């Protein structure tokens, strides 16, 4: 059941999905610039250090799932939206003993720099989901590279590393060009997924739960989103369904290493 904190936040939730039409309705994302660091005269302290980019010899440049003989799955969240809903979701995961991977949008970190610390302090994993959540595969190379490195710079300033993974925005799979640019920026692998929860469309918690549990398999990487009340409500029954199948929710790095 959705906790009280999530219910209170639902009315003001920001849409954080990967639907390009949602971004258009919201208007162009504002580049607020990086959060100030102590070296810049700012007051934000670095969060607990994040893991550096994950490198697994033998795995492809683009990863959709982990080992199918694993008794685990990775729940990965596109990181944007109302921080109250994000915090409620992290709390649900932690109460169940689950660890998740959050791929953050850089301009969200500009507005909510404290969320980097909150995610890491919960034992979760951070990654890069571009700076402004543009259609990265449609951008010229220089602009696409700036989207990757812009978010990486924010993660480095707040956490000490550029994060464990890069996931392209507004697409399930990166083009060869975007994969090469991600590697140039320091990410050996691009993180895709094999299960799309479709939660960004706000179908309601029961539909999100059914979509995930009907498709998930050992080793799956599941795509979900912060900032949606239905996702917060769906997470406990999803985790319960995974437990009933003998599956654990772990970070993506834990899944593939």
TrEMBL record:
SUPFAM superfamilies to which the protein is assigned, alphabetical: Glycoside hydrolase/deacetylase
Domain NodB homology: 71-250
UniProt biased composition (Basic and acidic residues): 19-29
Native species: Streptomyces siderophoricus
PROSITE patterns assigned to the protein according to its UniProt record, in alphabetical order: NODB, PROKAR_LIPOPROTEIN
InterPro entries: Glyco_hydro/deAcase_b/a-brl (IPR011330), NODB_dom (IPR002509), Polysacc_deacetylase_ArnD (IPR050248)
Pfam families noted in UniProt: Polysacc_deac_1
CDD domains on file: CE4_NodB_like_6s_7s (cd10917)
Renumbered residue ranges of the record's region Disordered: 1-64
Name used for this protein in its record: Polysaccharide deacetylase family protein
Composition skew (Low complexity), residue ranges: 1-13
PANTHER family found in the cross-reference section: GLYCOSYL TRANSFERASE-RELATED
